[in-house]
Amino acid sequence: MAGTDHTKTTEPALKGLTTPAVILVEPQLGENIGMAARAMLNCGLTDLRLVAPRDGWPNKDALAASAGAVQVIEAAQVFETTTEAVADLNFVLATTARHRDMTTRIVTPHQAAAEIHAVLGEGENRAGILFGREAKGLKNDDVTQADAIVMVPVNPGFSSLNLAQAVFAVCHEWYLAAIDEQEPSGLAIPKETRPASKDELNGMLKHLGDELEDAGFFHVEGKRPVMERNLRNMFQRANLTEQEIRTLRGVISSLTRTHEKK
């Protein structure tokens, strides 16, 4: 469908709301980035983050394909890694079309929208949604940055979506939740603290990994990546708060000091 009413800017229900970021991981074609930006603006979202776009940035093909979503394209941020792109976020969802061999919650776009609204409704929290490469989607290392996986319910005999379709399918559910003023549900966030940012979680995991390395936990070198991934998945599922992260780091430091004294 075509048509834009330039006399209207932002849907009234969206004014004052914190919106989730859309993170495209290693997108290949500028046209696909542009169409994804168009889908975002259809849903009132403007925070576009690109992780290592194949053809560089800025990209004139992206601007041309955005069909007027210039504000999204011009404000797009570029990062070298997924870890850097989600560092300031407290809650991250990863989209995928296939089941993964890891213990991670799977939600629908409708459920994802409710959880994002619940998180963003508490304090200064930030949320984001990861979308993978056009050809192969997200790598497992990207998915481990997320708190849950989003799978779009489609015909199982033909589940292929292009990048812009996937962005629209997920973001539109968030938009519907906003304009319908649905009651947030899903995550319960303690009032006295906030969800930990991915940067804080990654810092704790590095702290833990370094101490485990010194203690000889990773004695089989070839298994270390899998063991670290399993540890990350465990802590992701816990939905840790900033206070809990600080407590865990204190526990790790205390155990380390105790071990050194013996």
Can I get a quick summary?
By secondary structure, this protein is of the alpha/beta class. It has helices at residues 30-42, 60-65, 70-75, 82-85, 109-120, 140-143, 163-179, 198-214, 224-237, 242-261, and strands at residues 21-25, 48-51, 77-79, 91-95, 106-107, 127-131, 148-150.
Walk me through the structure:
The protein is of the alpha/beta class and 262 residues long. The chain has helices spanning 30-42, 60-65, 70-75, 82-85, 109-120, 140-143, 163-179, 198-214, 224-237, 242-261, and strands at 21-25, 48-51, 77-79, 91-95, 106-107, 127-131, 148-150. The protein has two domains: 12-179, SPOUT methyltransferase, trefoil knot domain (Alpha/beta knot, 3-Layer(aba) Sandwich); 198-261. It is built from ten helices and seven strands. It has a seven-stranded parallel sheet. Strand 1, helix 1 (30-42) and strand 2 (48-51) form a beta-alpha-beta unit. Helix 1 (30-42) runs parallel beside helix 7 (163-179). The radius of gyration is 20 Å and the shape is globular. The termini are far apart.
